[in-house]
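Problem 3 from the worked examples.
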Amino acid sequence: MAAGALADRRPWLALSLVFGISYWLADHSHVPGLYEIAWKGGGVALLAAYAWSHHPTKDAHRIALVMAFGALGDMVLEINFTLGAIAFLLGHLEAISLYVRHRRATPSPSQKALGVATLIGVPLISFELSGQFPVAFYALGLGGMAAAAWLSDFPRYRVGLGAMMFAASDLLIFARMGPLAQSPLPHLLIWPLYYFGQLLICTGVIGALKARGEFRAE
């Protein structure tokens, strides 16, 4: 890829970081509702734009779609929690499809064990925290996404770690429904775990695809 072409795409990531970090640090009390919703969705929406524009390949567009569902979920959650969760679930299913296509050929026993533990543990813990079956159903997709990312052949300490951070963020949301309802911890950690998890996932997938030569045509 020409240096100029890469530079043309870096602003998407820079703008995403501006939106994502500023949303976490800002005091939202004086921000009008619609502007705050757009602000919240902007960080991951710009990751989707980065992935889509970065390279014209199906897998790059798949991770862009995952990010787009995430951005949609971010915004819709502010209006309707159930519809927002559905958007995220659709993103998890798309991500699982991508990761399964790129599954690791020979994962170690410990890697397999963590994948199985994530698949089973995330929905069980989610139900324990929230006491709600719909939450556990959603978390089955969340756990499947994180497990599939961990067992994929994408960089484990970028894509796999990012997926685990996403799962941890959602578990804190569910904990806020119950045992951590009065704790400031979820408020402090939910957004950075989620946003930087998505950032690691998106850039990790794109970086791996580039390293494998999928973008030689550029």
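Problem 4, a separate protein:
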Amino acid sequence: MQRLTRLAVAAATALAAAAVSAPTASATLPAADSQPHPHGGHHAVFVQNNSLAGNQIFAYHRSDDGQLTPAGSHDTGGLGGMLNGSAADHLASQGSLTYDEQHALLYAVNAGSDTVTVFAVDGDHLERRQVVSSGGRFPVSVAVHGDVVYVLNALDGGSIQGYRVHDGHLDKKDDWHRCLGLDPNATPQFTNTPGQVGFTANGSQLIVTTKANGNNLDVFKIDHDGTPAADPVVTNVPGAVPFGFVQNGHGGIFLTLTGPNALSTFQIHGDGKATQQAFAATGQSATCWVVKVDDLLYTSNAGSATLSGFRASDHGGTLTPLGNTPTDPGTVDAAASITPAGRYLYVQTGGNGIVDEFAVNTDGSLTQIGAQTVPDAVGGEGIVAF
């Protein structure tokens, strides 16, 4: 609990990390044509444990009532990593496990070995296809739009590396690499590494949050072929510590601001500049992650061990607070399943490596329906749900 308190204090001022050194791995498994064709994820939740001894993805079968049962584990072929100063979340990022619906692929970062693993997804089963270089040090987040994938590397000042999806694999594009130019020596490290990479809904712009290392939103224009602009358009948000985000309409995002512990909405304009539209404080500590469930938003507050709920209206122009829900210690990443039978929210808690399971009620309140202890997942991060 003392460590979680330190996390809350530090995250309210900045965010940083020290990499665990490990050899870089790169391997391509048999070609996609020699493997079963995936049908995509369904009735499943996948959780990354980010273990320093060997990163693993744990599969869970989701029943119609939202409850989870273990369905096996899968080695990524890489190592997890841990940033200096981190406690509940060793990657200090959002989007470290990302699903590619168009190609039925799952991308997992291996921060400790500077690689990304590609899995084919079929129901609650994974088939490992590839381990590829991340193009930098300490990958923490992955974004996909169409056939284009970008990985965010956190150390050495930060960088993005682009790929094209081909035949169930990632083809690395060396000329789609851009350095972010952040201060590599800023401390504490877990508050001073970039937090997330993600596309706007139409795929024309790529957004990177820098957290306390600048307090900026870096927006790269993406050409029709996937090539990023040479330099980003930078919007400074003083003292905000921008961390995690999800899409909001054509060109907007819902963004957590860890400095004031708040949820905000920003519009990303055609010229790359960003303007804030709405702001709502959580009243909690270490507000870093956000997940969207229809018109509902839930932020994860690692220092308070809570979720804060909000209802968005007027295209994100208004955020109405819905109250807080307790979780296990160290609330971090979250994912949602929206089904004909109901809406369910699955929340990683890094204090003890537990995934809390919730049903989402019509008024936005949450009812806990179960919990799963993920092996070797203290400080783990990365979750997707179907």
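Solution to problem 4. The two ends are 32 Å apart (CA to CA). The chain has one helix and 32 strands.
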